[in-house]
Amino acid sequence: MPDDASHAQPIVHDRPDTKGRSLVLAACVMATFMAAVESTIVATTIPTIVGELGGFNLFSWVFTIFLLTQAVSIPIYGRLADLYGRKPVFFAGAALFLTGSTLCGLAWNMPSIIVFRAIEGFGAGAIQPIAATILGDIYTPTERAKIQGLISSVFGVAAVIGPSMGAFLIQHVSWRVVFWVNLPIGAAAVAMIAVFLKENVQHRYRQIDWLGSLLLLIAAGNLMLALVQGGSLGTATLWTVTGIGLVALALLLVHESRIREPMLPLELWRIRIIAVASLGSFGTGSTMMGVSAFLPSYIQGAMGRSAIDGGLVLGAMSVSWAIASIIGGRIMVRTSYRLVAVLGGIALAAGCAMLTVLSPAEGPLWASVASFVMGIGMGFCNTVFIVAIQASVPWRQRGAATSSSMFLRFVGQAVGAAGCGAVLNATMLHLDPAAPHEVNKLMDAATRAALPANELTHLVDVMAGSLHNAYFLALFLSLLTLAISACIPARLSPRHQTRQA
């Protein structure tokens, strides 16, 4: 790019500012909760929205478009935060998110709400990684271990509060209000960061890699679409989308290796701790989604329990996740990153192993214990990975490093959901080609009760066996995460960390 197209980059001393940190922390917690609760609270509104707006065949896109736009925009926001500072990028993302939330509550049909959810997702791509980066700026490595543990626990809290809050608002107010809950929270978070976060930014001119940004959007968008919606796309469409994504990815790698100021700094991956922790984030994301996306179906379909029971089983993971995030942060200060990550990987593998021997006759208690154990693994791993990454780079690279980890976590979630879903469907077709159309009868209590005993037994066996194979894939992903965790350099901790090449 020509020099006259260059832009300003802030130069900031990498020294935590202790003034007003508690209020900035509160703002970042609020912002993270706002983005995290969006998915869980909206899940409870979908049946009501479909009932009023129609478009049942499009309802899955309400989730998919939010995931896609959020994931593909995360690395771009991270790099922009390194160039322009955290505050303006956070403000831009929050403005997009709150605008999308407002418009979602005003939607008149399913296509309109999908478009508005896309706007929300583009904004959410800035909120979580920039909030985490801000905290990485204002706290020392030792302090980050505790603070990022607190932030990680917010995701668990959001998973518990979201569905209940959504159900309450639908019953007593309107589904539209569900999207407006975030407006006062977001406004307060923006105001607090505007007033209390001091960046002391000085500027010098740098180039913006717009071509890299475009290639990243094309590559990530198409590959994520293939992963998330591959089962519903036609063969020709799937191959086309995948091909476009792979070509764009190849062009991106070539372009980023040649440009002086890349949007996706590839040199970060030469730092061992960043490469390992980012891959670990991919592993935890894929394991978690591979289990949580299908565990309620086992509880309802194979065990014949209610949707509430399925929610309680997942709630066990959320509770232990929140607790383990805080505990893990304290342990790593006294020990090492590797120890906490390995303990987290062991917990993930143990929880998945418990699910592989789950049987319908045991009831939801065994599943709840397995979910609880997995939550411990998620809390330990997520906290240690983000803290280790942020301590490995200076201010000017921290946004990109944090965002790369979160981006891979989202990609992992898509891979886990798509992979376990593919195993589930393939096993079901192998056991009984008619089963995919028949197992729906297990999900409705009245229809299930009317099934003949032999048909009920057969369908339960098919569903349980198919889900067991999906859990074996989740177990493999958890063991992969454990192996990656063991590759973290020894003796590194928030107290004793040097940059690892």
Task: Summarize the structure in words.
The chain has three domains: 1-208, Up-down Bundle (Growth Hormone, Chain: A), CATH 1.20.1250.20; 210-258; 269-501, Growth Hormone, Chain: A (Up-down Bundle), CATH 1.20.1250. The chain contains 19 helices and two strands. It has helices spanning 21-43, 46-53, 60-84, 86-104, 110-138, 141-172, 175-180, 182-196, 210-229, 235-258, 272-292, 295-302, 307-334, 337-356, 364-390, 395-431, 435-438, 445-449, 453-485, and strands at residues 7-11, 202-206. A two-stranded antiparallel ribbon has the order 1-2. Helix 13 packs antiparallel against helix 14. The radius of gyration is 22 Å and the shape is globular. Mean pLDDT is 79; it is low at 1-16.
